[in-house]
Amino acid sequence: MITLYHHPLCAHSRFVRLLLGEYGIEPQLIEENVHERRRDFLILDPAGQTPVLVEHPSTVVPGPSTIAEYFDETRGLALGKHRLLPEDPLSRIEVRRLMDWFGQKFFREVTDWLVTEKVYKRFMPRERGGGAPDMELVRAARSNIRTHMRYVSYLAGSRKWLAGDRLSYADLAAAAQLSCVDFLGDVPWEEYETAKLWYSRVKSRPAFRSLLADRLPGLSPAPVYADLDF
């Protein structure tokens, strides 16, 4: 049994849930609120950040990129032509570049601000940073996302998938970030039809179903969040 320590609106955790779905693996999900600094979780990973994957007691794999590489190394060949990290070095570079773009740049400039201000701070005690959202940061994220949406539109309009001719970790990394923003209703889909069509293809995959079922106490997703025909 594979166990994944995650948070429902942690974009990095969502990336891992998507890749596990593509590998046909249904993990045991344990929700972790990292601001609690829970001792048993810190023993697993002293960095104290989600996601952390445990395959058996001696195999603890922290962080989205490390988990992705681990699954490619241990199970990638079995996927054949559906492998999520391509075989040739140049294609692997492009997938890793885009994973880094969405997992770091998009996250820093958009997802982190929106999720922290609109979600995490609602559930955090004031002494740990909780409280009312900083609307300046929310507005900055809403502005920044347009740059990223233009880039997604460019990639999706010039390739079959974001990194090339087949679905890869790059698509899952981008979709994971966008899914969090989409949950909050902050993706201007009406302005970016090409990006929307790409996202609808990823969103329709079986691996996405568990993400679309995510709910948080006192917080409802945007109306189009679970709509495959949005």
From TrEMBL:
Please provide, alphabetically and separated by semicolons, the GO molecular function terms listed in this UniProt record: glutathione transferase activity
What range(s) does the GST C-terminal domain occupy?
Answer: 88-224
Q: SUPFAM superfamilies attached here?
A: GST C-terminal domain-like, Thioredoxin-like
Q: Which residues form the GST N-terminal domain?
A: 1-79
Please list the GO biological process terms of this entry. glutathione metabolic process
| Stored InterPro entries | Glutathione-S-Trfase_C-like, Glutathione-S-Trfase_C_sf, Glutathione_S-Trfase, Glutathione_S-Trfase_N, GST_C, Thioredoxin-like_sf
State whether it acts alone or in a complex, and with which partners, per the record: Homodimer.
Q: What protein am I looking at?
A: FtsZ-localized protein A
Q: Which organism is it from?
A: Methylocella tundrae
Q: Which gene encodes it?
A: fzlA
